[in-house]
Amino acid sequence: MQISRHLSKSENMAAASRTWFRLSPQFLRSLRRSDGKLFHTGRRRLQTKPSNGAASVYHMANTEALPEYKHQAKIIDGVAMAKEIREEVRMEVDQWVAKGHRAPHLSVVLVGDNPASASYVKAKTKAAKGAGITSETILKPSSITEEELLDLVDKLNKDDRVDGLLVQLPVPDHMTERTICNAVAPEKDVDGFNVVNVGRFCLDEPAFLPATPYGVMEMIRRTGIETFGKNAVVCGRSKNVGMPLAMLLHTDKEHHEICADATTTICHRYTPGDQLEVFTKTADIIIVAVGQPNLITADMVKEGVVVIDVGINRVMDPATGKMKLVGDVDFEGVSTKASYITPVPGGVGPMTVAMLMKNTLAAAKKDPSYGLSMHPKKTLGQKVS
Fold first, then answer.
1. Which of 43, 128, 129, 214 could form a disulfide with 133 if both were Cys (CB 3.0 to 4.6 A apart)?
2. Residue-wise pLDDT tens digits, 293-313
């Protein structure tokens, strides 16, 4: 059956409601009734092994319009919040330098010519300059061997002028990512990817947190969102984002103000679509970091939910015919039910860079309990229950 791009006849849509389509999120949003209201996109299932190698969503259009809601979500402005944090870091750096210390220094190693990685590195070094942190980008060709890269990392580990060190991910396929991450000295590991830092914060010990989870938790804290005893759902279980977020969401707030005391559930690629909806419909807080556009839609959430969208996807904008960035959440639909929501772009992304600056400053200060102390009042050797 051929369906035109702009349906206006209710009988045409009724026929469409009985047929399955593989449609893009943008196309679904273009389906409107004759009175101008959006049609509700109902049943869905996730295809775990599509022929094109990327997960896709199948929708079944039906003739019910989306219900009207009394509010619009408050947008969490990650750009403004990140600017505030960078200014705070700048003030601390100025105080640090005024005491006779040199400015903190961040070294970034970029391997290969991945355009996205180059863009991320540029954003990090620009933010560093604005925060009063000196930085350098060390470029290496993708042909560099793993042993050569490890030698470089070791050299930077031993360089007293380097406070923070990171190797921009992903690394070339002939390298083992975990090996590279573990090679960075824990006290300089401002990305928080070294296994020592991962293990320490999982045990509520002082550690550097990965910048993206750190940024998400700081967004929640600064916005004043209540987390104590709330149901939180994390979609995505990556070791750099999903897993750390789940740990921080459920951790006892007595250890640090950034912890959340929430009841936390992790969903991932093998969570059946119908079960995903069960979890998200009961969630007070949903954090999505999957990399699948339109994964979370309005019919999958309850009113008043807090939605943090970590996803970054490039899709074609049918209105302009150009590529644009979107997250994993149907922003237009979910924002009619959520109490708070983050946009993409302009949400979590700027916060990630801002928290990297905080980590670099902490590394420069070389506190004996480096990084984010999960026990702010704890001194070395003091037992914490």
1. 128
2. 999 999 999 999 999 999 999
List the one residue out of 169, 161, 155 whose CA is nearest residue 133. 161
* Residue among 293, 349, 353 at smallest CA distance from 323: 293
Whether 168 is catalytic is yes
Sign (positive/negative) of CA torsion 376, 382, 383, 385? Answer: negative
- 189, 191, 328, 330: which one is catalytic? 191
| 191 in catalytic set | yes
pLDDT tens per residue, range 269-295: 899 999 999 999 999 999 999 999 999
Name the catalytic one among 168, 292, 299, 330: 168
Q: Which residue has the tokens 């750190």?
A: 214
Q: Please tell me whether the peptide bond between 350 and the residue prior to it is cis, using omega within 30 degrees of 0.
A: no
The model's pTM = 0.77
Rounded CA separation 233/279 (Å):
7
Residue found under tokens 């921080």: 248
Based on the residue annotation, tell me whether 124 is a catalytic residue of this protein.
yes
Of 124, 188, 337, 358, the active-site residue reads: 124
Q: Are 294 and 25 contacting, i.e. CB atoms less than 8 angstroms apart?
A: yes
Sheet holding 285-288, edge to edge: 74-75, 340-341, 306-309, 285-288, 231-235, 263-267
SS3 333: helix
For residue 188 the two structure tokens come to: 């300089």
Q: How far apart, in whole angstroms, are the C-alpha atoms of residue 251 and residue 370?
A: 19
- DSSP assignments along 172-217, one per residue: PTTS-HHHHHHHS-GGGBTT--SHHHHHHHHTT-SBPPPHHHHHHH
